[in-house]
Amino acid sequence: MDNPALSGSARQAARAPPSEQITLDRSNTPTTSPSTNNPPRTPNKPIQPQITSSESKLDHGWRRRIRNFSPSWFSITMGTGVVSEILYTIPGQSAWLYYLSILFFALNTALFTLAFTASLLRYTIWPEIWIVMINDPTNSLFLGTIPIGFATIVEMWVFVCVPVWGKWAVYVAWGAWMLDAVIAISVTVSLGIILMSENGQRGLETITAVQLLPIAATIVAAATGANVAGVLPNEQYALGTILACYVMWGMATPMAMTVLVIYYQRLALNKMPPREIIVSAFLPLGPLGLGGQTILHLGKLAAVVFPKTGTLDPVAGIIAYIIGFFVALIMWAWGLLWFALALAAIYKSRPFPFNMGWWGFTFPLGVYSICTIQIGIELPSHFFRVLGTIFGTAVIVLWCIIAVGTARGAWRGHLFYAPCLASLKREQDVVTRASSAEEKEMGGAGPALASTSSDITERPPTQGREAPDIDQE
């Protein structure tokens, strides 16, 4: 029953739900006052990303190091492996050089095992990093360092272990080479397809000598196969290995020369690369030096194996050897020009910061020095042997300097940096912003639904149906 002492507007305010209470000011003007259960709505503010405890763990300790362990770390195994080969092949062999090469061989094996384990943990714990790394146009190129580093271990196995352990070690090396060849060809072909099918256009200024890494992997596999073929006891197995190495050399070496032409055009039109990657100017020495050494060694093996197996003409092996020598000499001369250009680039860009790219000094110059020594042995020429020894000694000194800097940077942790993780973080931020926007849309309707539900629950139950109140004038 309505109280007759109340006016119509007062009675209407009393019947209103708590969320819409009407109060009267001194001028008897009804105003709506918000309920204490439903505070006034404030403008939506942008949600700031909060760092969770799981995210903070990724930036500290072993998780940060494993998460940022990019394939470029395998360049250490490339440099260490080529130092062991230089110590084994350098002229004027002595016992201490031989044992020192074994020491570097053991160190390289340990480093490769450690790097492979870290990479396996990285892609097992965070499998999403693999997709991001593959799609990165620069970081994915360093996948070529993995088969190259493994190939240096196989070569030293042939040099050191096969003479000591005999026949079974030969077939272990042969099987390891087959595995390395399959991986190297897969890297060369697949990365080429990925780069060509990449979304968006790339300017010529983005081309660097790092493009040679996945191509060089197949050339290194061909060079390793030549060393394996030289110790195989079965002549037919040796012949098949030699022919396979010729095929791999033909797949990769002309492609490397094509990239060199593009890279030279980039230098001519867009000048030197940035200081952070200027060391990559030495990378052209790798395909040229190793390509020349490989074709020379394959021709030398063909001169022995072809007559024994009746392959082609009896003089086919000698022809392959002669052609291989002059091709190697021409490639070595072309490498000499790139060596001069690399020295000029380093001189003009000094000083430049220390990073993992410094390992680009070691392997290209190392294989170029080995090619120089091999040319000196085949001629024979004291000039080439002495020059190769000088180059090899410089590589060993550079390895010592870079190894100290890498150990210091690894201990402090600042060398563990993977640029591709920035793309992963951007993708995660997009997902977070999308979910936050969705929550804000739902949040706008939330208070209204909450007040409606509270009104329903707070109203007393009615007995039957009441007639509406009618104001009496």
UniProtKB/TrEMBL annotation:
Q: Which CDD domains match?
A: TDT_SSU1
Principal location class: membrane
Query: What is one GO cellular-component annotation here?
Result: plasma membrane
One Pfam family, please name it.
SLAC1
Per UniProt, the ranges with Low complexity bias are 26-39
Q: Where is this region: Disordered?
A: 1-59, 433-473
InterPro entries associated with the record: SLAC1/Mae1/Ssu1/TehA, Sulfite_efflux_TDT, Voltage-dep_anion_channel_sf
What name goes with this protein?
Sulfite efflux pump SSU1
